[in-house]
Amino acid sequence: MMDVVAAPGEVAEAFAARQRSWEEQHLSPLAARSYPARRRVPETDCGLRSPLQRDRDRITHSKAFRRLKHKTQVFVSPEGDHYRTRLTHTLEVTQVSRTVARALALNEDLTEAIGLGHDLGHAPFGHIGEAVLDACMKDRFGSGRGFRHWEHSLRVVDVLEKDGRGLNLTTDVRDGILSHSGRSPAPRTLEAAIVRIVDRVAYINHDIDDAVRAGILREADLPREPIAILGDTGSHRIDALVHDLVEHSRPADAIVQGEQAAAAMDELRTFMFDRVYLGVRQRAEHAKIDRLLRTLFDHYLSDPSRLPDHGGAPDADLGQRVVDYLAGMTDRYAVRVFESLTVPDSVV
Q1: Is the pLDDT of residue 55 over 90?
Q2: pLDDT given at position 8
Q3: Hey, which CATH number is domain 51-342, 1.10.357.20, 1.10.3720.10, 1.10.3210.10, 3.40.50.2000?
Q4: How confident is the model at residue 312 (pLDDT cuts 50, 70, 90)?
Q5: Helix spans in the chain (H)
Q6: HSE toward the beta carbon, residue 109, CA cutoff 13 A
């Protein structure tokens, strides 16, 4: 058997030194560096990938990443192939974040790994599903318990993947995953700060696009002032926000938006919450999703033996194991399990 550790070859032997040299020559002094790898469990570096590139690959080969293609972004089980899913959102965030990192001479590999991993812990049915699981945990176990997708994303890569061994990602990637939400602690790297802002830039604009496609909004419904500032199409708005972010971040030595662009984006976000995320159509879906997830939560909590593989983390308490299992479900799998519990089998 070939032993690439004992006999890596000429290219592999020179890779790390070449990568370090390139980063010192081309990256900003403020950029995170790829070496040394800081992992909870030390391991030998790969001969042909930096530690951050290795993290990227571990994320994209994970089960949780594959499930994102069947998880809701905003619209539950949309008819048509062109609506965003949690996976397409993840790819859009990653692509835009890399553009920003490149423009600012920051570490694209770190930005990419964080972008690809940031939503691995999202529950089925988007933010509605997250809110229901949070309420289920608090109702049953008290206000000290809950469910927050950014914390669960870290739990996925630390604990739940690889049959409980986790992915053993580097410290900077783990920090970026945990801190990607505006409700989470501030990130410690500029690369993670990019993903934190671009996540919002991406979802506001592509959710507008999907809402128009679904007939929930018309272009004419959008608030006039932010549209006049940022542009009348999603691509124009994203382009304007990215340029604004880059131009204000470089002199600030931080990841910051300009005051006008930030205010315009916040106005669009408020509009989307009022008209789409918490609108009449989504509130109707909320009641259905609440019933579905609460039924499953109570079902598994009442009889832990029904949890496959003990919920994936046998050392955790029962509530955590149940929410681990439910959060890992895709939308369609959750519907299928709910139907098996509530819909009678047909009689031939």
Answers
A1: yes
A2: 73
A3: 1.10.3210.10
A4: confident
A5: 10-26, 51-60, 63-67, 86-103, 108-117, 126-141, 149-155, 171-178, 190-213, 224-230, 234-252, 259-272, 280-302, 318-328, 331-342
A6: 17
